[in-house]
Amino acid sequence: MAQGTVVLSEMPVPAGVPEFLQGQAQKRPAVPSDLEIAQAATPIPITHIAHAAGILAHELELYGNTKAKVRLSTLERLKRMPSGKYVVVTAITPTPLGEGKTTTTVGLSQALGAHLGKKVFTCIRQPSQGPTFGIKGGAAGGGYSQIIPMEEFNLHLTGDIHAITAANNLLAAVIDTRMLHEREQSDEVLFDRLCPAAKDGQRRFSPIMLRRLRKLGITRTDPNDLTPEERSRFVRLDINPDTITWRRVTDTNDRMLRGITIGQGSEEKGMTRVTGFDIAVASEIMAILALTTSLADMRERLGRMVIGSDRRGNPVTADDLGVGGALTVLMKDAVMPTLMQTLEGTPAFVHAGPFANIAHGNSSIIADQIALKLVGKEGYVLTEAGFGADIGFEKFCNIKCRESRLVPNCAVLVATVRALKMHGGGPKVVAGQPLPAAYTEENLTLLEKGCANLIKHIENVRKFGIPVVVAVNRFTTDTDPEIALVRRISVAAGAEDAVMSNHWEDGGAGAEALADAVIEACMKPSAFRFLYPREASIKEKIECIVREMYGGAGVEYSPDAEKKIELYTRQGFDKLPICMAKTHLSLSHDPALKGAPTGFIVPVRDIRASVGAGFLYPLLGKMSTMPGLSTRPGYYEIDIDTRTGRVIGLS
Questions:
Q1: Pick the catalytic residue: 153, 355, 504, 573?
Q2: Per residue in 246-280, pLDDT tens?
């Protein structure tokens, strides 16, 4: 990522760019920290950003002067408008430091909008507190290609992740409480308490209870008319605690919560159960937020989430527990995307934040849909898929595009010389420690060997029929011969173009050549296709991904995974797409296997069902759904200036 640039540049502004989007700061000789750059910028009022983007005043819910929720009525108003070009940004297999995919996405957006005069929207995920206070840091971009205000972006934003945490843990509490009450109460007592007489003496079913009656095939709607057998079927879920897959969540890397025992209070004696926590962004509710297409769709998805099975092997849902409507109420504001801006005043939607190595790793369908209508036929929407093309991009195509029915025009594959040298056999890269000399000195032999990883990712993208442009995200230590080597290998491997991009140091100006290449690639025909048919069996889909995306030779299923495959097939969930939970540090399941390994066998230790989101997710190898804090996390640097109230140390 070459490093020094413009906050909002003073170069000539293209025709059609509003006056308030024009430059605000001088180019600087050296690049300060990301936080210093962000805090030195003066954000444009978000109402101005909205107006320039075509969002009406009554479609905004303001959260201060620099961010706003955008109501879903915007999409309804624009539904007959033509859509813009759809560009997905992905990457090669990264080092633990990350290779600047978000930075590239933002820099490209600034180049298209602030420098080439195109209508553009950036759509990215909201970051979790886990990496923000851990090793990786925030996710607003970097250098002179960032989303601002950077502190608000990385800390709470508009509270969507807190809403997800609240909804997720409400459902967890409901599950265990329902089992407790069913154990202690007879059918008649349960029925009387679930359907008490109102002040007028009448019993009534709530709307969500009527949903359960319909599911059970009970047509009577007056509680007094149900037979004793129907009452028993209605009130007794009979959840098998051994089948419960729903876990509590917190938005912190808290390794001590990975395995816990609940139910040790005196009033819950005998209801102890071993369970655990996931990171909040791994919650199925987060995946639903990212994949939903409307408030009504979200309500249905939340209601059909499966938390386990009853003792007869039938799936038990959130609506069976009576809580689907309450979950939707907690999520009613979160379903609206948050409007922000880049350093150069181009608009950005920040919405949803599922991890790509655990969940499907993409921002929301709703944000993409609204943005595509706002930019119009000649505009561009950049959406980012987490980690490498083997993970977030594969899930973007096979899961997100299936749900949205949107077809990408082009993919941008971010690569760095640093990461490619690592894949060529370079020394171990450790976050928080200085890079070894192999990464800061020219080494064409090491680099060429590592390009095997780049070639495999280009191949992965092309399997979906999408034109691909390689963005070489330049660092100050990269040499011209190294950049030239990566470009030559990329084009030979089938990329439409490979462009060195200097957006970290030069903002949008440093990504103009990349923007030109993307514009040209979007003009090429796209023959988009899925990797596998929905009708394939669970094993066929898993093995297709392992073979085609990872380069593996086969799959080994644990006894638990085999049982889940049999269960989900019997319950009718076998036609759902697959969302692999695996390490992002290798094309394989093993983070130690670098480059483009082949011949390995992928172990599937378990499979979970996210029925509301609409996918099954196998857990590969030692993949954990709750990260842990290291010895020296990022929170050591984070503090506040008590005189000014400014955040310091955020990265």
A1: 504
A2: 999 999 998 999 999 999 998 887 899 999 999 99
C-alpha–C-alpha distance, residues 293 and 150, integer Å: 28
C-alpha 647/C-alpha 644 separation (Å) is 9
**Calpha distance 153→165 (Å, rounded):** 18
Residues, the chain: 651
Q: Would you say the C-alpha torsion 384, 388, 389, 392 has a positive or negative sign?
A: negative
In whole angstroms, give the CA distance from residue 336 to residue 373: 16
Of 103, 104, 122, 275, the catalytic one is 103
State yes or no: is 475 an active-site residue. Answer: yes
Q: Is 101 a catalytic residue?
A: yes
Assess whether the previous peptide bond of 45 is cis (omega < 30° from 0).
no
User: Is 103 noted as a catalytic residue in this protein?
Assistant: yes
User: Helix count (H) and strand count (E) of the chain?
Assistant: 23, 23
| Active-site residue, 387 included | yes
| 3 state SS of 361 | coil
In whole angstroms, what is the distance from residue 174 CA to residue 196 CA?
Answer: 19
Return the amino acid letter for 479.
T
Helix (H) / strand (E) element for 347: namely strand 347-350
| Contacts (Cβ under 8 Å, ≥6 apart) of 534 | 402, 575, 576, 577
CA gap 134, 348 in Å, rounded:
25
Of 234, 393, 475, 615, the catalytic one is: 475
Distance of alpha carbon 168 from alpha carbon 150, whole angstroms: 27
User: Bridge-partner residues for 145, per DSSP?
Assistant: 142
Catalytic annotation present for 594? no
Which of 133, 205, 246, 387 is an active site residue? 387
Does residue 243 have an active-site annotation? no
Task: Name the pairing type of β-strands 145-148 and 141-142.
Answer: antiparallel
Output the six-digit token pair for 355.
């991890």
Alpha helices per DSSP H over 185-323: 187-194, 207-216, 228-235, 284-291, 295-303
Q: Evaluate whether 412 touches 89 at the Cβ level (below 8 Å).
A: yes
- With residues binned 3-state (H G I as helix, E B as strand, rest as coil), the percentages for the chain, rounded to 5, are 40, 15, 45
Looking at residue 20, the DSSP 8-state letter turns out to be G
Return the C-alpha torsion angle 89, 95, 96, 101, nearest 10: -20
pLDDT digits (tens, 9 = 90+) for 580-605: 999 999 999 999 999 999 999 999 99
Contact 361, 373 (CB under 8 A): no
Roughly what angle, to the nearest 10 degrees, separates helices 284-291 and 160-184? 130
Amino acid at 551: G
For 73-132, how does the pLDDT look when each residue is reduced to its tens digit (9 = 90+)?
Answer: 999 999 999 999 999 999 999 998 889 999 999 999 999 999 999 999 999 999 888 777
Alpha-carbon distances, residue 232 vs 93, 186, 237, 268, 319 (angstroms): 54, 9, 9, 23, 17
